[in-house]
Amino acid sequence: MIRRIHSKRALAVVALLCLLVAFLSELLWLLESKDLLWAGGGAEVDEGPDGGLRLRADANAVRYDPTLHGRGVEVKAVTYHGLKVDRLRDGRWRIQVILDV
């Protein structure tokens, strides 16, 4: 049985690309240090009190289980290389990120 863990996260950074890398790095840290795997949930970007961008994630996570989730390639870091963020006409975001493995 998979037990879901509910976690709220808030990160504040000035640039959108920095914010994205910080958020993905946080998800990677949660996996590496606490065996928590992102299982979806909402994420919103808005302006923080200091004028910088802030990301708030209402995340659902599950404990990483190699028998359920597999043992793919270990991700070492989130990189800025090839990072692209586009806002689509319908308001959604399209993100391309290259991971260091």
Structural class: alpha+beta
**Uncertain segments:** none
What is the 3D shape?
globular
Series of secondary-structure elements, N-terminal to C-terminal: EHEEHEEEE
How would you describe this structure to a colleague?
It is globular and about 40 Å long. Helices cover 23% and strands 45% of the residues. The protein has a single domain (4-100), classed as Archease domain (Archease, Possible Chaperone, Chain: A, domain 1). With 101 residues, the chain is α+β, with helices and mostly antiparallel strands. The mean pLDDT is 84. The protein has a three-stranded antiparallel beta sheet with strand order 1-3-2, with helices on one face.
Question: How is this structure best summarized?
Answer:
By secondary structure, this protein is of the alpha+beta class. The mean pLDDT is 84.
